[in-house]
Amino acid sequence: MFENLTDKIESAFAFFNKITRLDEKQADEGLRKIRQALLESDVALSVTKKLIEDVKPKIVGQEVLKSVTPGQMIIKIVNDELTRILGSEKSDLNLSNVPPIKILVIGLQGSGKTTTTAKLAYYLQKKLSKKVLMTSLDVYRPAAQKQLEILGNDNQIKTLPIIEGQMPLEISKRALNAVSLTGDDVVIFDTAGRTQIDQQMMIELKQLESEIQPHEIILVADSLTGQDAVNIAQEFQQTVNLSSIILTRIDGDGKGGAALSMKAVTGCPIKFLATGEKINELETFYPDRIANRILGMGDVVSLVEKVAENLEQEKINEIEEDLKKGSFTFNTYLQQIRQMKKVGGMSGVLSMMPGVSKMKKQIDDANLDESLLKKQEAIILSMTHDERDNPKIIGGSRKKRIANGSGTDISMVNKLLKQHKMMTTMMKKMSKGGRGALQGMDGIPPDLLNNLK
Ligand code: GDP
Ligand code: MG
């Protein structure tokens, strides 16, 4: 469902990924691409406009963190804005009132109301251990009540017995009576829908609302109808007190824009996504996870967060300067080790960088852990400043002194020296490629990895 949107947005990000400095002209160009991607994916115009307006000042004039690319930085900014538009926090069903909790499920015909009613009941019963009664108020479509009864029977959920000829208001009174006797926690009312919004349906819903006094009125909307789903939600909202939205057919190949616009246009939170026909295909809606999914870049987002939180910018600058000059002294390496420890070791850093999954596997296989970094730190700390700057002077007796001072042994010291030599060569290659060169590499040279073990 969201793949479409993801593909489009990714190509917009590809533009930002190529640039190295951000100015207003470039920001405008990139944002125009993002705007186009959103509109083509059926995101409402008002929502798209607002998103671009809110993102722009954050991009222009934003100091790009040294260790990420402008593209990565922008993904993070757009991600935050998307999450906000989707509703920021997940919203739970309103279940905290005195039972029975009354839930009215409404929507157009074929949107998935009956199926979703059963899924909700199943979820409440199975996950939240609630006692649930389902009631069909759809007396218009032949066999509609039977459809819910069958779903109930198949999944061990109670349904109100069907009495032929009863009208929706009478049925709802009977259901309320029944739960007051059985002490059920939740009663869910499935309603009739029309193929389009009409006066009669709205009048009936209004009556049902005042009779039942629901704690939740949930609109079930078919996400495949795109922009229409949003318009429909707005129309329902004018008649009844809509409190939640469930989007169905997320498993279909719709454009995904409806999900993005719903909360922003109606103010009503999406609480679940229905992702298939089966009883358990109902997902809690988490705005941040969906934003990540849409951008397809969750890992980049957490990388930027971690970098921003943990790394000391000045230290990073120093390291970069040293590397640019092609000098990779033990002092530089010491700083690097310390920064690495902060973000969860080497594999912690690498696992979050796009395009280096290969290296991550190598590193996991090589079993490099924190203790190695600690030992290396101790060895470097036992060196004099001259030795750190110019490791060539470290001969046999110096090695012995360093090993003793760091509580390691000569073979460890040798390994570190050899590793330093290999890394110097690697860094020199990388500094020619500039920032991001790591992503272009095939992997860590095997001899370097072996030496680390
Ligand atoms: P209602 O008229 O609003 O009550 O809609 P139904 O619940 O009867 O659903 C209409 C059709 O859509 C049924 O065949 C369902 O199995 C199907 N359906 C409902 N929700 C989903 C969903 O999330 N994904 C898919 N693929 N099909 C769904
Ligand atoms: Mg139905």
Keywords for this structure?
single chain, Four Helix Bundle (Hemerythrin (Met), subunit A), 453 residues, Rossmann fold, alpha/beta, 8-stranded mixed β-sheet, 434 Repressor (Amino-terminal Domain), binds guanosine-5'-diphosphate, binds magnesium ion, 3 domains
Number of domains: 3
Supply the number of helical segments.
Answer: 22
Strand fraction equals 5-15%
Spell out which ligands are present: guanosine-5'-diphosphate, magnesium ion
Give the helix/strand layout:
Elements: H1 3-18, H2 24-40, H3 45-59, H4 70-85, E1 101-106, H5 113-126, E2 132-136, H6 144-154, E3 158-159, H7 168-182, E4 186-190, H8 199-212, E5 216-222, H9 227-239, E6 244-248, H10 257-266, E7 270-274, E8 282-284, H11 287-295, H12 298-310, H13 313-324, H14 330-342, H15 345-352, H16 357-366, H17 370-381, H18 385-389, H19 396-406, H20 410-433, H21 437-440, H22 446-452
Parallel strand pairs: 1-4, 1-5, 2-3, 2-4, 5-6, 6-7
Antiparallel strand pairs: 7-8
How would you sum up this structure in a few lines?
By secondary structure, this protein is α/β, with parallel strands linked by helices.
Explained architecture:
- This protein folds into three domains: 3-86, Four Helix Bundle (Hemerythrin (Met), subunit A), CATH 1.20.120; 101-296, Rossmann fold, CATH 3.40.50; 304-451, 434 Repressor (Amino-terminal Domain).
- Helices cover 59% and strands 8% of the residues.
- The chain has helices spanning 3-18, 24-40, 45-59, 70-85, 113-126, 144-154, 168-182, 199-212, 227-239, 257-266, 287-295, 298-310, 313-324, 330-342, 345-352, 357-366, 370-381, 385-389, 396-406, 410-433, 437-440, 446-452, and strands at residues 101-106, 132-136, 158-159, 186-190, 216-222, 244-248, 270-274, 282-284.
- An eight-stranded mixed sheet has the order 3-2-4-1-5-6-7-8, sandwiched between helices.
- Helix 1 (3-18) packs antiparallel against helix 4 and helix 4 crosses helix 12 (298-310).
- The chain starts with a helix and ends with a helix.
- The structure holds guanosine-5'-diphosphate and magnesium ion.
- Magnesium ion binds at residues 113-114, 138, 144.
